[in-house]
Specification:
alpha+beta, single chain, 75 residues, two-stranded antiparallel ribbon
Length: 75
C-alpha cells in the first residue's frame, strides 16, 4: 500500500489482508474516521465501509452505493 496523502492509503491487498486491516483500524480508532472502498460484486464494482462516524454511512440507492450524510438530531 502507498500513502498518497497523510492518512490516505491506496493499494490492492488480498481479501484476507483487507479484512484484517479493517478489523485493526475499526477496533483501534479513537477520535478519527475510517472509510474503506473495496472491490465487490455490485453494479459499481466496489463497496464502502465506514467506522468511527455516525454522520456518514453507505446507502444503497437502487443498486448504486453512495456515502450519505446523516442528519443529527438536536437535543
Amino acid at each position: 500500500m502507498v500513502e498518497v496523502q497523510a492518512g490516505v492509503f491506496v493499494g490492492n491487498p488480498s481479501r484476507r489482508i483487507r479484512d484484517l486491516l479493517w478489523q485493526v483500524l475499526s477496533d483501534r480508532i479513537d477520535s478519527g474516521q475510517v472509510v474503506m472502498v473495496e472491490p465487490a460484486q455490485t453494479e459499481q464494482g466496489w463497496a464502502v465501509r465506514t467506522a468511527g462516524t455516525d454522520r456518514w454511512a453507505p446507502v444503497d440507492f437502487d443498486g448504486v452505493t453512495l456515502v450519505a450524510r446523516r442528519r443529527m438530531q438536536k437535543p
